[in-house]
Design brief:
Chain lengths: 313, 238
Amino acid sequence: MSFHPEIFLQQIVNGLVLGSIYALVALGYTMVYGILGLINFAHGEVVMIGALTALSVILALHGAAPDLPAALYILAGTLVAIPVTMTLGYTIERVAYRPLRNAPRLAPLITAIGVSIVLQNVALLVWGRSYHPWPPILPTTPHTFLGANITDLQIFIVAGAAAIMAGLTLLVNKTKLGRAMRATAENPAVAGLMGVNVNVIISITFVIGAALGAVAGVMVSANYQIAHYYMGFILGLKAFTAAVLGGIGNLAGAMLGGLLLGLIESLGAGYIGDLTGGFLGSHYQDVFAFFVLILVLVFRPSGLVGERVAERA
Amino acid sequence: MSDLLEVRRLEVAYGGIRALKGVDFEVREGELVALIGANGAGKSTTLRALAALVRPAAGTIRYRGEVTHHLPSYALVRKGLALVPEGRGVFARLTVRENLEMGAYHRADRGVAADLERVFALMPRLAERSGQLAGTLSGGEQQMLAIGRALMSRPRLLLLDEPSMGLAPLMVQKVFEIVQSVAREGVTILLVEQNAKLALELSSRAYVLESGLVSASGPSAALLTDPKVREAYLGEAA
Ligand SMILES: Nc1ncnc2c1ncn2[C@@H]1O[C@H](COP(=O)(O)OP(=O)(O)OP(=O)(O)O)[C@@H](O)[C@H]1O
Ligand SMILES: [Mg+2]
């Protein structure tokens, strides 16, 4: 057993790609938690619906005009998926969570699980049970960098996620809307006394999270070249883990937690065979997230950069 | 002068607890009115009802001639009603400047920058600490910030809930100097205070609240010499 630096670098690249996607989804969890103290377990399903909507558009466009540049298909799919998930995010908050704003904590949590099930079944009705593969639109010849392969798609995912996260950070920290979001997260009653319509801020938070989710959905389905109605569940759990790892409620934490989780998974899956003498294989990749979740909850429930201890739901 | 605020038979209940049992009072344009009373008398509840943080069970609140108790808090600020809540309620994770900017949240006029300078001139301590997180300020500085933040909304009626709470005497004096200078600028003020002596000295009229009802009212100077008030709220034998 010997160490191959190019394989290690390849795992890092794969981890950053996965981690960028987890971070985008984790932001949706953490923004809503920050403002409402609610874990929106339906967020993974919103991402799934974003992915399937985008893929449907891409397939239809590809069927009608098969020779357009790949970026155009993806752009079209994403531009349709974003308003769809935004509407969905808005509706979920308005219909399912707002009536329970002052209910005991367990009520919205159970509702969130109910909403997930509803969304999964809607997706099942619309898209069926089968796996939907992507059309062959993406360039497959990778660039090589120090012996590791990097595709255009991977560069696009990492750069796109970085740009979105930078934009969100600016929005939250430097704009009037962002200030109102932070004030509402800290004390909604006093934010109201300042003239903030708290319900509007909460809706905007859901809508932004859902838009990020649509982009993440497109990225994850492009990365695996597949989408199906059940993909939101495991992705949602992992992104939730990433949010908890970083410190739920904290934006920088969600970004950091997402990237770290992607790296842990990728390196873990790459080396678990070596580490266990071949006893466990790379298909144990999904286990790492939950292993991380348990470790964080036991040893550092406030997360890496979180100051507030996540409440037990 | 006309009443800026008129409260009639105001009742508020928290679950089964009747905190206000029919409170009557009014505040006229340009007045500084004090509302005093023992712990649990319902002073904060009155202010919270005025700012729509709690819904009245009965009675009417008329502000600028309009019945307002169906309006949400955020709409009342836009009409010039600002509350500095008990315990200050500064946004600890926002900077001092951001807190002040939140006070002007509903405003789109060009005067915001000038008002920020005015608040900084009134409270130089805040200017020095404008980039600091509000949570790191001392209690007195936080009280200043809470008042400054309310001023940023250009209030017509300012509701102050125990601005002296938890402050050392020197700081209390400073805070009250600021309250006075705000009043001199023409802002109408309804001041709730535990420190009855101070409140009565500062105000022109006052109401005494007792178990959810107004038990006495009148010019502050008269209440200051009223033996019953002296005994109950100024800690003196009658
Ligand atoms: N959120 C609440 N839930 C239940 N009861 C409450 C609540 N807030 C206040 N009360 C009760 O209502 C009554 C009036 O309270 P309020 O806070 O208005 O008194 P206060 O005059 O401001 O007293 P203090 O001087 O101690 O601030 C008290 O009996 C209090 O226990
Ligand atoms: Mg009080």
